[in-house]
Structure formats: structure tokens, C-alpha cells
Amino acid sequence: MNITSTRWALRWLILLALAIALCLAPRGGAASSGDDLFWVVVASVDRYEKAWAVASGLWDSGYEARISPAEVNGSVRFRVLIGPWAERTPAQALRERLAATGRDGLWLLATKPEQGAVREVSPQARGLGQVNIVPGPVREIRIGIATIPAQEGSSIVLGSDRPITIGSVSAGSTGSGSATAGLTSAGLVGADKAGPGAGRVLCIRAVVDETGPGLVCEAQGSRGVYVRGTISMRLGPDPAVPHVPGEAFIWVGQPGAIYRGRLEIIPRPDGGLTVVNIIGIDDYLLGVLSSEMGPTSPFEALCAQAVVSRTEALGATARHSREGFDLCATTHCQVYSGAWRDLAAPNVRKAVEATRGEVLFYAGAPAKSAKFHASCGGVTESPKELWGLDVPYMQPVLCKPGGSPALDSLPDLSSESLVSAYIDSPDQSVYCYGSNGHRWSISHTQSTLVSLLAAVGAPPGNVLEIRVDERTGRGAAKLVTVRTSRGEFQIAGEYAIRNAFGGTEVIRSGVFVVRAVGDPPHSFEFRGAGYGHGVGMCQYGARAMARMGYDHAAVVRHYYPGAEIGLISY
Predict the structure, then answer these.
(1) Which of 38, 207, 407, 417 is 20 to 30 Å from the Cα of 342, by its Cα?
(2) What does the pLDDT read at residue 431?
(3) How would you classify the pairing of strands 133-135 and 564-569?
């Protein structure tokens, strides 16, 4: 055993010894709902999965433990708590025992959570002036966070340090003597096996029989409960240890992937299953901003992203309705990472709270969409030219001070030579100059191209020519012809073109030119400008504007000409 393993083993022995000592300390009975409760922190770690490992060891030894996130010196720490006590004396006694072993024994005071309305800030106080305030369309949003493919034994594992209440969304539940209404995760194992660790980890398996698709929900040591239809899951009251300080989470797949809100597990007719996170719109935005804009971005850029992402989410709630949810968690909609990233980024929460209810308005009504992308390369794209959607407030603008949507101010990219010159001579005054993807290049060998293009139906044979036949006014490829030794093949649509030649992270935008290397060609070089589709807000441009002192309203007005910020109530 090495030194590191020995140290961890000693830490575990100390922790278990302290837990035994803790059990000898009187708890003074259950506290009433209005009492102050005292907890003791026995471990403080930087990741949820580490805290889960410590808590699991305590549960396995028969002791109560809970996990609570807390901000410490600007970073998040996950604390493992033991308690609660209705009086301070036994908690203080355990703290002293911890101190005697050289550990940092802390005690926390947890009070009954306050129940009250969210404090509203007037538009004038936010610096928005006179704006419209209209009712919001939804309070919660359904996010598809995982799709488990159909295969033998399709399943998903999830868990929480708090009891999970299990319900059936659709009728037809049967099981091992228990209906799903009001069933808790701990109740799955039965009273004879109940303990602090009972039902902490659940496995949901997809089944298909003569009655249709269904699910089996199992905890370790249980026979499981069968549900014909969809299972809902939420964190219920914790009768064993009420009023735990801090947020509670459900993890999905592995303990580090933590989520707020509720879950639904939907069985599919093909034998797979879909996991849906049902969450309040602003809690959803916490996971989006952390992934899409990045928690270290300037505060006003985070605020601009909050307004834009809120607008986009509320305007796209039917995008995946056939699949049982509103939005997916990928770049197809907006990247959503759950709770694990924003917990370490207090500025993300501040930005969401500072812009609560703010969305784009156009012509006196909430905007239906607000697209964004990483880097425009110098000028944003027209959704009408790219997708056939005429959106008045998402017209091309220059990504620079005084940028204008007037067509005569935009660069002329009407020919291959002009597009090539635009890529090779970037304007250093644009906001996104020098950003990731502002300019890029990639080379594909013959063998790589043959393999990539075979997947999209190109004729077999060596590639002789790649020709862009149609572009948008910004220069994005809309139609490409590939000539091989066996014939020609056309690819239509900016997204399909980028995917065909290696994916959207390889061919970073549709604004590119291609050069054959060798005669006959042995490789092809792609050179391009921008990262993403180019429509709407340039995220690197927004960051630069924020660093220059622009507020989020100015950022939004720059990239969505004619739109203003308004408020929805929810």
C-alpha cells in the first residue's frame, strides 16, 4: 500500500470513529419545524462525487449523512454533514472531538427555510426605462438530458443523498406489493432492510412486453416496481433529517452529474429510454450560461447571454415535443450541463437573478427566437439567407463599434476570390478578432475524405474537386459539389455541409474556401472564418463589448437591431 492509500485509509478510520462517537451523543429528540438545528461538517471536498463516496461509507456503516454545497473563499465545497441536533451542546462536543484529531470540525446552524415570493426589481431600477411587462408562457421547462439506446438491458442509474419520491405519470402501475403513488426510494427495499443508505441509488430498466413499453425501478436489495408508462421522480421531504442546509440534487449516470428539479424516465417503444429534467426556467439558465458563455466571462456578457438564452428557450418549447420534452441539452438547442458547473460560478447565478424575466421584445411583443454563436469572424449572418427564416431583428451586422445592419456597409463576399481575401485579411478592429475560431484551417487527406463522404452517400473513389456553388451574402456555403473519380455528389445546407466534412467542431463555420493540394489531389485544405452558424449574438464579441464597458442592454441592441429588452412575469 502506497503513502496516499495509507493516508486515505487513516482518514476513513478517523471518520468512522467519529461517527461512532457521534451516535453516543444525545440528539435531544426531533426538532419542531420552527426550531434551529445544528449540524457538524465531517468532510469538505471539491467535487460532489468525492462527497458521495464519504457519505456512502457512513451510510454503509449505519450512520446518517447528508451533502451540502457551500461557497468558500470564492469556490464551491461539498460538505458531508452529520446531524441534526436540536441543541448546540452535543454538536459542539463532536466539534471538539474532531479538533482533537487534527480535523477541522465545523458546526452549522440550519433554520427553517423561508417561504416567500421572489423579490421583483423594477425596470427603472435595472436601467431599462419604460418596458412592457407581460405574462410568461411557462414556469418550468422540460430538458431531454439523456437518451439511452435500445439494447438488451437498457438502463440508467441515478441517486441522491435525500429521499426520492417515485410516481407514475401514466396509469397502469404494478409491482412488488406497492403502488407508485407516494412511494419513496427508501421504501423500495422494505422496512426490514431500511437504513440510512436505503434507496440512495436506483436503477431504472426499460422493458417491452405485450402491453407495451414500461420501466422497472429497483434499489439495491429490492425486487423493484414495474410501471407501464413513464416514471416521475422528485426529491421529497426528508423525515430522518429535516432542514438540511444547502441545495439537494439528483445525480444521473454517475455522482458528478447532478441536476436540480424533477426527473421523468420515459420508456420508448424500441426498448430504449429517455431521461427528462423538469426545471424552472431560471434554474435551467444556470446550467446553460455555465456551458454556453462560460462562468469566467465578464458579468455584462453573462447578463446578455441570460437574456438571449431565456428568449430562445421560451420561444422553442415545442421543438422536441414528439420526443416528450421541450429542448435537448446539446448545441441543437442550447448546451445544458445541469448544476455541477454553475455551483462553482457565483457570477452565473448573479447574472440570471439580475436579469430575471428579461427577454427580447420586437414590435411590442416577446421575440420568438434569439440565436447566438461563438464567433462571427467579423460580420453576422442573415437567417433568411441561411435557413429561409425572415427575422427582422436578426439581420447581418458588423461585429465592431458602430456596426450597422445596412447592406452597403457589409463586406462584398460575392465571389470565391473575395471570400478567400476576407479570410486571409481579417479586420483587427472587430470585437471577436483573435478569438477561438475567428480564423481557422484544417486539412483532410484523401483517405479521410473518402471515409467521411461515404457516410453521406458520396460515390466511391478519390475526391478530385470540392466546389462551393452557392453562398449567402456573408459567404457561408449553401451548396457544395464534390467530384470524385466515380461521379459527382451535391450537399445542400450549411449544417449538412459542415457535418459532411468532419463535423461542426472541425469545419467551424460555413464561411470557408477549399484548396486541392497536389495533382491529382492527395489532400484538401479548408480555410475559414468564424465559429458557428453566425446568426444573432457573437459570444466572443459580447465578451469584448462587456470588457469595453458596454452593459448587457447595449450588447443585445448591437446584435439584434430593432429589438429591445422587455420583462415577462413568472
Answers:
(1) 38
(2) 96
(3) parallel
How is 360-398 classified by DSSP, letter by letter?
A: EEETTEE-S---EESB-TTBPBPHHHHHS---TT----B
CB-based contacts of 64, cutoff 8 Å, min separation 6: 58, 82, 83, 196, 240, 241
Cα separation, 497 vs 479, whole angstroms: 8
Residue 156 pairs in a beta bridge with 204
CA-to-CA dists, residue 422 to 51, 401, 412, 467, 536, angstroms: 52, 19, 9, 18, 20
Q: Counting Cβ atoms within 10 Å, is residue 395 exposed (0-12), middle (13-18) or buried (19+)?
A: buried
Greatest alpha-carbon span in the chain: 87
Q: Which helix (H) or strand (E) holds 410?
A: none
* Three-state secondary-structure class, residue 97: helix
- Among candidate residues 174, 208, 212, 540, the one with its CA nearest the CA of residue 380: 540
Ramachandran region of residue 74, left (φ > 0), alpha (ψ -120 to 50) or beta? left
Predicted TM-score of the model (pTM): 0.84
DSSP string covering 110-126: E-PPP--PPPP--TTTT
Q: Tens of pLDDT along 427-484? A: 999 999 999 999 999 999 999 999 999 999 888 889 999 999 999 999 999 999 999 9
Rounded Cα distance between 64 and 23, Å, is: 10
What are the backbone angles phi and psi of residue 196, rounded to the nearest 5°? -55, -30
Whether the bond into 84 is cis, omega within 30 of 0:
yes
Q: What is the DSSP letter of 550?
A: -
Which pLDDT belongs to residue 9? Answer: 46
Task: Give the amino acid at 501.
Answer: F
pLDDT for the residue 121: 53
Pick from 374, 347, 367, 276: nearest CA to 561: 367
Torsion of CA 412, 415, 417, 423, to 10 degrees: 50
Half-sphere exposure of 96 (CA within 13 A, CB side): 7
C-alpha atoms less than 13 angstroms from C-alpha of 267 in its C-beta half-sphere: 28
Distance CA 109, CA 86 (A): 10
3-state secondary structure of 43: strand
| Three-state DSSP string of 288-340 | HHHHHCCCCCCHHHHHHHHHHHHHHHHHCCCCCHHHCCCEECCCCCCCCCCCC
CA distance 556 to 554: 5
Which residues of the chain have a pLDDT value below 50? 1, 3-6, 8-10, 12-13, 16, 19-34, 109-119, 171-180
CA 401 to chain centre: 32
Q: Residues 408-416: contacts with CB within 8 Å, 24+ apart?
A: 410/379, 410/473, 410/474, 411/378, 411/379, 413/471, 413/473, 413/474, 413/475, 413/511, 414/471, 414/473, 416/468, 416/513
Looking up cell 462527497 gives: 51
Measured distance CA(448)–CA(507) in Å, rounded: 14
Cell triple for 324: 416528450
Q: Which of 201, 217, 287 is nearest to 251 (CA)?
A: 201
Q: Give pLDDT, residue 446.
A: 95
